[in-house]
Amino acid sequence: MKKILFITLVFFGQSFAVNAEQRDISISRDISITDEWARPIIIAGRPGGAYFTIKNNNQETDSLINVTSSISQRVEMHEHTMKNGVMKMSQLSSIDIPTRGTVELKPGGYHIMIFEPHRKYTLGDSIDLTLEFESGIIIKKILEVHARKPWWLEIKKWWKDTSFLAYSFLFPSFELSSGVPFETPTIAGLSKRFLIL
Questions:
Q1: CB 114 within 8 A of CB 71
Q2: Is there a domain that residue 172 lies in?
Q3: pLDDT in the model for residue 12
Q4: Exposure class string for 103-128: b at 16+ Cβ within 10 A, else e
Q5: Which residue from 56, 43, 71, 47 is spatially nearest to 129, judged by alpha carbons?
Q6: DSSP assignment, residue 180?
Q7: 155 closest CA partner among 59, 15, 44
């Protein structure tokens, strides 16, 4: 019964993962970019923000060193920090991504600022970003424009956290003990494991 329930959850979560993968136009085996979105620029002259999650699948530390876009000649990496009770924003020359680590760019933390865009863009539009890493990896992304982080991205994060807990509960001998990083289960992977059990 537990396995049937878990398979149902897997099918539910897979649709969100597939939708996210379809927005990729360049995929790297060592660096992955997910959960990307951008805030609208409704008033001319105001900057816009862009957000996403970077995962370093490599055995070495990497850094995001440059971001460009066809919509603006001025795209910068920034960080919000709290100092003496005051929130300050500062420009960064790079963002480090630790070995097999994840860094989330989000409002109130690391983020991308888009200044002086060639045109305004609003809800339902999309913009492009090209991300360049110190290792030489270049990834191009298309970001959909939303007023806030889309709800399906929150569900996707919940799904990954939940699948980790469920998988550990159903299969206590899972390879996490060997240091292999957890990945969201796939249908093929689960079918193979169930056939073995």
A1: yes
A2: no
A3: 47
A4: bebbeeebbbbbeebeeebeeebebe
A5: 71
A6: P
A7: 15
One DSSP character per residue, 85-127 reads TEEEEEEES-EEE-TT-EEEE-TTSEEEEEES-SS-B-TT-EE
Which H helix or E strand runs over 31? strand 31-38
- Is position 92 within any domain? yes
Is residue 33 one of the residues assigned to a domain?
Answer: yes
Q: How far apart are CA 50 and CA 114, in angstroms?
A: 8
How many angstroms separate the first and last alpha carbons of the chain? 14
Q: List the CATH number of the domain containing 101.
A: 2.60.40.1890
Q: What are phi and psi of 139, to 5 degrees?
A: -125, 130
Which pTM does this prediction carry?
0.67
**Parent domain of 108:** 24-149
Is 7 part of any domain? no
Helix H or strand E segment including 130: strand 126-133
DSSP code of 182? P
Give me the number of domains the chain comprises: 1
- Residue 181: helix, strand or coil by DSSP? coil
List per-block mean pLDDT (blocks of 10 residues) for the chain, which spans 197 residues: 48 45 54 94 87 94 97 95 86 96 94 93 94 96 88 61 54 44 50 45
